[in-house]
Write a structure and sequence with these properties.
Elements: H1 2-16, H2 19-48, H3 57-60, H4 68-86, H5 90-113, H6 128-135, H7 149-160, H8 164-184, H9 189-209
Helix pairs in contact: 2-5, 4-7, 4-8, 5-7, 5-9, 7-8, 7-9
């Protein structure tokens, strides 16, 4: 543990000497801080507008059940594990941070342009962390559909983990998560299919920004 902490301190101290890295990190934190500040009002507005209900053959053949606990277990365990694994690599962590910011911006825009009502049979998925920092507690949010943020997050985990064995496990967990999201009926299958594409675009944009 001591060696782990020392490597973090040494690597980050060295990276901080680079003014370009320093300002890129500060800006990434500043952009990230905007989301909790403005997201509550945005999603409350999204929730009150009318959208369309899509016909989803896959969901129509899956009985809806509450599987919130395993969904959250997979998401939060995977994210914490990813951060622990990449925190010793400042530039890799910075790339992940910017990819997450870009993906969030893309998701906010796509939710705005693609107005959807929840799938039939939706079982409310209450995310305590998202409700605290993103959605607020005024009104349950069920229309933040296109695309799936949960799936996009797991795509980041699969991409940014440093070892092939870890990435294979993350891919397996992502497949399980997708199945659970469909069982919960919190997303259309199209929302889930679009998430990896949006994540890949965000990763490439973030890489270009950091050059």
């Amino acid at each position: 543990m001591k060696g782990f902490e020392q490597s973090i301190e040494q690597n980050w101290t060295a990276a901080w000497q680079d003014s370009r890295f320093r300002w890129q990190l500060i800006l990434a934190i500043a952009v990230f801080a905007i989301f909790p500040w403005k997201a509550d009002d945005y999603f409350q507005w999204i929730q009150q507008r009318e959208g369309i209900v899509m016909q989803d053959i896959i969901l129509a053949n899956i009985p809806a059940k509450n599987v919130s606990i395993p969904i959250f277990a997979i998401i939060y365990f995977s994210v914490v594990y990813l951060i622990v694994r990449i925190i010793r690599q400042p530039k890799h962590f910075l790339w992940f941070a910017w990819a997450f910011n870009v993906e969030t911006i893309i998701r906010f825009a796509s939710i705005y342009w693609v107005a959807l009502n929840p799938p039939e049979g939706l079982v409310d998925l209450h995310d305590p962390i998202a409700e605290l920092f993103i959605y607020g507690e005024n009104l349950a949010i069920t229309k933040d559909l296109f695309f799936s943020g949960h799936t996009a997050t797991m795509v980041f985990v699969c991409y940014f983990l440093p070892q092939a064995k870890e990435r294979k496990i993350a891919i397996a967990l992502t497949i399980v998560l997708v199945i659970l999201l469909l069982i919960q009926h919190v997303h259309y299958s199209l929302d889930i299919v679009a998430a990896p594409i949006a994540s890949w675009v965000a990763i490439r944009i973030a890489k270009a920004l950091l050059r």
